[in-house]
Specification:
Elements (H helix, E strand, L loop, with lengths): L7 H7 L3 E4 L8 E6 L5 E7 L6 H11 L8 E6 L3 E7 L4 E2 L9 H16 L12 H13 L17 H10 L7 E4 L8 E4 L2 E5 L6 E4 L1 H15 L4 H8 L6 H10 L4
Antiparallel strand pairs: 1-2, 2-3, 3-5, 4-5, 6-8, 7-10, 8-9
Helix pairs in contact: 3-7, 4-5, 6-8
Length: about 260
């Protein structure tokens, strides 16, 4: 059972649940699975001094209801130290699980189907600007405030300084953006499958209008990391991208070093 001091109203909502800490994935939040009642919940607990507020994810979950299979918001609140986000569970197994090794071509098909469904959400009226203009401003702010974990850089950028990467980010900026609604962190742990098909998506804090390569680039990196480079083209073919813009793939993977 958890020993975290929760706000009183949140404590009542979670009373009687068993708490299990989630250790996979990279996040500034402490994430727990709450089980033992008629349905499971997930809770994220994060310091109010973190680089990204959980309020960003809360807003997106509310906006996405009825548009995509995403968790439902149960509670959002703050106290002097932390933010708290309580939401329903998307049942299933995340796409990075080794149980999928026997069905990798089918998994790549499902990842592509899932990503197309995200990119088909209309951007008209979308209040979440994740275009390069806003992302570069935020990346620059994080560098200036020394919020970048240089030890967490991808292997090809290990040993580099955040200031150097920020200059590269400006120098290599693509001239055009193919704007769609994006997940923002379309990595395999954030896609949930059930009975061999995409059942929903989690971790929406960076979602919004951006170039589709924001998602394509991170999906490619995640597929390579989890199952090998040989499955990347299977995913791209299923998505409908016969030729890939390698410069944009590189750029959006570079951009992710700041987030």
């Amino acid at each position: 059972m958890q020993s975290i001091a929760l706000p009183e109203d949140l404590s009542k909502l979670t009373n009687g649940y068993n708490w299990q800490k989630i250790t996979f994935g990279l996040s500034q939040s402490q994430t727990y699975l709450l089980s033992g009642a008629s349905f499971n919940l997930y809770i994220k607990i994060q310091s109010r001094t973190a680089a990204e507020s959980l309020h960003l994810e809360k807003e997106r979950l509310v906006w996405l209801q009825g548009k995509l299979p995403v968790p439902e918001l149960v509670y959002f609140g703050q106290d002097d130290a932390n933010e708290y986000l309580l939401m329903t569970e998307i049942e299933g197994v995340n796409a990075s699980d080794k149980s999928y090794e026997s069905m990798l071509p089918q998994l790549m098909q499902q990842l592509a189907i899932g990503l197309r469904s995200v990119h088909e959400v209309p951007v008209d009226g979308c209040p979440f600007d994740q275009t390069l203009e806003s992302k570069i401003v935020e990346a620059t702010r994080r560098v200036e405030q020394q919020l970048i974990d240089e030890e967490d850089f991808d292997s090809q950028r290990q040993g580099r300084k955040a200031e150097d990467l920020a200059q590269e980010l400006i120098r290599l900026r693509p001239e055009t953006e193919d704007l769609v609604f994006t997940h923002g962190d379309y990595c395999l742990p954030n896609i949930i499958l059930k009975d061999g098909k995409v059942h929903g998506f989690i971790d929406w804090g960076r979602a919004g209008m951006a170039d589709r390569y924001q998602d394509i680039a991170l999906a490619i990196r995640s597929i390579r990391y989890n199952f090998g480079h040989e499955y990347v083209q299977t995913f791209l073919d299923a998505y409908g991208m016969r030729t890939v813009d390698e410069a944009k793939v590189h750029y959006y993977q570079l951009l992710d070093e700041f987030f």
